[in-house]
Amino acid sequence: MSAALAAPVTTKFTRRVTTIEDIRILERSPYDALVPARNLHHLFEATARLHPDQPALTVLTGGSGEGATSLTHGELLHAISRAANLFRSLGAKPDAGTIAFLCPILPQIFPALLGAQIAGVASSINYLLSEEAIADLLTAQGASVLVIPSEKNDPDVWTKATRVIERVGKLQHILVVGDDGSPSNEFIRFDEAAAEQPRKLTFDPGSDRSTVCALFHTGGTTGRPKLVRLTHGNQIHAAWSFAQVHGLDEHDAIINGFPLFHVGGTMTAGLSVLAAGGHVVMPSPHGLRSKDAIRNYWRIADRFAATIVSGVPTSLASLAEVPIDGSDVSRVRMALTGGAVLPKAVGDRFQQRTGIRLFETYGMTETAAAIAFNPGRGEPLQGSVGFRAPFARTKIVPLSDSTMQSECPPLASGLVMVQGPQVFPGYLDPRHNQGVLTDDGWLITGDIGYLTRDERLVLTGREKDLIVRSGHNIDPAAIEDVANTFPGIQMSSAVGMPDAYAGEVPILFVVPSPGHDVDLSKLLEHVETNIHEPPAKPKRVVILESLPVTAVGKIFKPTLRDLAVKEKVRAEIEQIFGANTDASIEVDKDDKLNTVVRISIESDDAVRIRKLADSLSKLPQTYQIKRRSP
């Protein structure tokens, strides 16, 4: 049985934060007095005791707002405890196999996921991954329990899950969530099994905040994604930090459109609000990937009296195109965004069309989403992700300093590094810590930015996203910000295109707003005129119907880099063979993860084929050319 805290204390904000000095004042109090919770269960005990009848979690089973299932804070604690008891009865412990979830956001899933973290180590896996990738993740983490949806609730995920199960031999228990019309003796019905458990915790989850309770797989394009370990303390501190700087309390209600296999869903718009006594609304089983959820977003915000809305920049760009019509959004005090640098034009468009102020936040999976926050009860600074988390440190290191010991002065850009209670203890595979965690506990974020004189953090891009043209570092945001101001452009993204002389040159991909046709010549003129750094002017502009995004909605630049390679090849083919030459281009990776480009071209002209091969041989990728007869 859990040892309850003597007095219930939620993570609700205790001081209105408007400046860095307010954070320093918080830090003058003993940490344990401000944050008494020793495990995640303590957070939900506190909210249940203080706000038992207030709404805690609502899950909509359709993007149009139908099928709402709601739990109060008292009911949420019972659901979490029953799930924890069930998983513990199946052998779950912090040092045993993980409890893996491969499931969309059904009403039972968030409480079950939290219960799994209290009983042992939980892992929520992106169900959009391939069967092979999912099987690799389950094997790598030593999963012993797998939670999946019933065939009726999600036939696609059910089919994928059953195939994955055949590939993974060490799974001991399969739990099926929701109505299962054809139960198998091999599977356990989660709903029935959980209902049989006591509604109070039957075991002591421990009081060591450093106990690992969650695994998150990070995005990756090569090899197996890294598995991030997060502790009870990491997540408690992150939730508390969000609440303090964003000013969260029991009167807040947030629309959480993120998936639960991402810290944006579990932390930024999840635990941070729940632990403060607020209300979390999940708009669809698939978050904002649901077109219906986007189309009905403002009605949902009105219906549940949302005070906070949230989304990655690409989601906000879509929401800016949705008319508010008669929906009442007057209670919305802030729109949270993060996950990528917010283009200024996208932010301006969202605020102008909705009247809702934007508050940028910044975090990583490795920090339980918590690094910096704009003050929710203060003034957000456009272009800044805000102040550091309390009891944490942020420093900017010159890119030229390989020792990472010196620090940049205010307003000088460099590599962002973070240290604090929210920083993870390392990856499941320690070899992945190389180049990410320093010996003295600093996290190397890989992001580029600077601190203002009042210690707000401004991000300018990713170190690996920099376009390096003849040794000149180009920030893609400098190109994108200009393109996004052109009338009719919803979103843009710039990457490097291979170049024999400069190494790489900028190429720009743009997406028109719905119902708009973009005049490419005028867009090129606009970009040429307004980008004042000559090396940053893109060599090519390409119009796309949509930008490739991750499951969370972040722009996925590796796919754009592959498209850039294709555009380079097309340019070379047009120059050598003419504009109407029929050619297919495929970009792939070899067994050593080097880029291989396979070209099939309709031509019998051996001289031109050799000329193309010679031209492409000067580029860093491997090019294989096959000719086919016209």
Describe this structure in words.
By secondary structure, this protein is of the alpha/beta class. β3, α5 (109-119) and β4 form a beta-alpha-beta unit. α3 (40-50) runs antiparallel to α4 (73-89). The mean pLDDT is 91.
Assign a percent range to the helix content. 25-40%
Let me know the average pLDDT: 91
Radius of gyration: 25 Å
Stretches with pLDDT under 50, minimum 5 residues: none
Shape: globular
Straight-line N-to-C gap: 76 Å
Number of alpha- plus pi-helical segments: 18
Main sheet specs: 7 strands, mixed
Number of strands: 28
Major sheet: arrangement of strands? 7-6-5-3-4-8-9
Q: How much strand?
A: 15-25%
User: What structural class results from the helix and strand content?
Assistant: alpha/beta
How do you describe this structure in short?
The chain is built from 18 helices and 28 strands. It is α/β, with parallel strands linked by helices. Helix 3 packs antiparallel against helix 4 and helix 9 packs across helix 10.
Key terms:
seven-stranded mixed sheet; globular; alpha/beta; five-stranded mixed sheet; 18 helices; single chain; 28 strands; 630 residues
Write the layout of secondary structure elements.
Elements: H1 20-26, H2 31-34, H3 40-50, E1 55-60, E2 68-72, H4 73-89, E3 99-101, H5 109-119, E4 122-124, H6 131-140, E5 145-149, H7 155-167, E6 173-177, E7 187-189, H8 190-195, E8 212-217, E9 227-231, H9 232-246, E10 253-255, H10 263-274, E11 279-282, H11 291-295, H12 297-303, E12 308-310, H13 313-319, E13 334-337, H14 344-354, E14 358-362, E15 372-373, E16 387-388, E17 393-397, E18 414-419, E19 443-451, E20 457-462, E21 467-469, E22 472-474, H15 476-483, E23 489-499, E24 503-512, H16 520-530, E25 540-543, H17 557-577, E26 583-589, E27 595-602, H18 606-616, E28 622-628
Parallel strand pairs: 1-11, 3-4, 3-5, 4-8, 5-6, 6-7, 10-11, 12-13, 13-14, 24-25, 27-28
Antiparallel strand pairs: 1-2, 8-9, 14-15, 15-16, 17-18, 18-19, 19-20, 21-22, 23-24, 26-27
